[in-house]
Design goal:
It is a single chain. By secondary structure, the protein is an all-alpha fold. It folds into two domains: 43 residues; 146 residues. It has eight helices and no strands. The protein is elongated and about 90 Å long. The model has no long low-confidence stretch (mean pLDDT 84). The chain binds protoporphyrin IX containing FE (HEM). Protoporphyrin IX containing FE binds next to helix 4, helix 5, helix 6 and helix 8. The site of protoporphyrin IX containing FE (HEM) has 22 residues, from helix 4, helix 5, helix 6 and helix 8.
Length: 217
C-alpha cells in the first residue's frame, strides 16, 4: 500500500515498520515487484538514520584512531625522527632512542589491541551484511580482507620488534631504517586495501519478482 507523503504520521509508521525488519520488508516488496521500491529505500535511509548503531560507531572510532596512531607514528619515525637523530653523539642518540622507545611501545601495544578488537567486531558485523551480497563481490571482499589480515600481522610483528627490547631481534633494530621503511609501506598498503573494502558495492541480491496470485474465482 502506498503511503501518503503528506501524512507525517503515516510516513513515520512506515519508517518504524522498515526499521523493525528492513530486510524482510524489502524482500517482500521485491517479491511483489513493488513499483515503490525506490521510495522504500528513501524511507529505509530515514529509519536507519534514526537508529544509530552506537557500538558500530565506537568500534569505527577505535579502529580509525588506532590506525592513525600506528601508521602516523611509523611514518613520523621513518621520515623525521630516524634521519634527525643521526647527527647526535652516540650516547645522546642512545638516550633519546630509549626515551622514545619506552614511551612509544605503550602506544603501539594499545593500537594493536584496539585494532584487533575493533577489527574482529567489524568483520563479524560485515559477514552478516555479506550474506545477502552478490557472490563475486563476496569473494573479492574475502580475498582482499585475507591479504589485509596477513599484512596487519606482519606490521604488528615488525612494530613490536622495533619497539621491544628482545636481544633476539637486536639485528633488526640495528637496521631500523630498512624495517621502518618496510613497515611504513605495508601500513600504507593496508590503509589502501581498507579503503577498497569500504568502497566495495555491498548490494543486496533481490529475489526475482513472482507473479501475483490469481484472484480466487
Ligand atoms: C595495521 C593494521 C590496520 C590498519 C592500518 C587498518 C586500517 C583500517 C582502515 C583505515 C579502515 C577503514 C575505516 C573506515 O573507513 O571506517 C579499516 C576498516 C576495517 N578493518 Fe582495519 N586496519 C588494520 C587492522 C585490522 C585487523 C587486524 C582487522 C581484523 C581483525 C581489521 C578489520 C577491518 C574491517 C572488517 C574493516 C571494515 C572494512 C569495510 O568497511 O568493509 N583491520 N581498517
Amino acid at each position: 500500500m502506498l503511503v501518503d507523503r503528506n501524512d507525517p504520521s503515516a510516513l513515520l509508521d512506515k519508517c518504524f515498520q522498515a526499521a523493525y525488519d528492513p530486510r524482510a520488508k524489502l524482500a517482500t516488496l521485491a517479491r511483489r515487484g513493488e513499483p515503490t521500491l525506490r521510495y522504500f529505500f528513501e524511507e529505509l535511509d530515514l529509519a536507519e538514520l534514526a537508529q544509530l548503531d552506537w557500538i558500530a560507531i565506537i568500534s569505527r572510532w577505535a579502529h580509525i584512531l588506532a590506525a592513525i596512531t600506528a601508521v602516523g607514528g611509523t611514518i613520523f619515525m621513518r621520515m623525521a625522527l630516524v634521519p634527525s637523530v643521526g647527527v647526535l653523539p652516540d650516547d645522546e642518540r642512545k638516550k633519546l632512542h630509549e626515551g622514545v622507545r619506552s614511551r612509544w611501545v605503550k602506544a603501539v601495544m594499545a593500537a594493536i589491541l584496539f585494532l584487533l578488537l575493533s577489527g574482529i567486531y567489524n568483520i563479524v558485523m560485515k559477514e552478516k551484511q555479506l550474506k545477502t551480497v552478490d557472490q563475486g563481490v563476496k569473494s573479492l571482499y574475502h580475498m582482499l580482507f585475507g591479504i589485509k589480515f596477513l599484512l596487519a600481522f606482519v606490521i604488528f610483528f615488525l612494530a613490536s620488534v622495533l619497539t621491544g627490547r628482545s636481544p633476539a631481534f637486536a639485528n633488526m633494530r640495528a637496521n631500523a631504517r630498512f624495517w621502518l621503511s618496510l613497515n611504513m609501506t605495508l601500513a600504507i598498503l593496508v590503509v589502501c586495501i581498507s579503503g577498497v573494502l569500504r568502497a566495495l558495492p555491498i548490494k543486496m541480491v533481490m529475489p526475482p519478482p513472482v507473479e501475483a496470485a490469481a484472484p480466487a474465482e
